[in-house]
Amino acid sequence: MPIVSLIDILAILLIFFIVTTTFKKKKTLLNIALPQSSELQSGTEVIERLTISVTPDEQIYLEETLLTLEELAPALRQLKLEQPSAQLELKADESLSLGFLVGVWDALNQSGFKIQEVPARILLKEQADDL
Questions:
Q1: With contact defined as beta carbons under 8 Å apart, do 67 and 60 qualify?
Q2: Tens digit of each residue's pLDDT (9 = 90 or more) over 69-111
Q3: What are phi and psi of 105, to 5 degrees?
Q4: Thinking of the domain 24-130, which architecture would CATH place it in?
Q5: Verdict on whether the full-model pTM lies above 0.90
């Protein structure tokens, strides 16, 4: 009965793939139009960062948590206390006003994060063509 041994092998392979699969962390599904650049090169370094997302209607999300601009600095300070090695990235819609974006940067500075260490997510030209 060769079919029985094949079923055993398939069951073992199924268990192997279930155990070794790494699942991606769920990201917030926000409709953010990222600025595009055709001149920047795509980086190969992948660092797991927490996301600050800013929608076109100026709503701020720290991962999945909705915050106001006034609540952002205290929430980031608390994050810095709980996770001192936490790294952030900023996903801001291209239609945001510069004044609002400066307010987000001020909150980052007030909470101890350096703006230079918080990259802004930019949609590269080849990524835009894939969408």
A1: yes
A2: 999 999 999 999 998 888 898 888 888 888 888 899 999 999 8
A3: -65, -40
A4: 2-Layer Sandwich (3.30)
A5: no
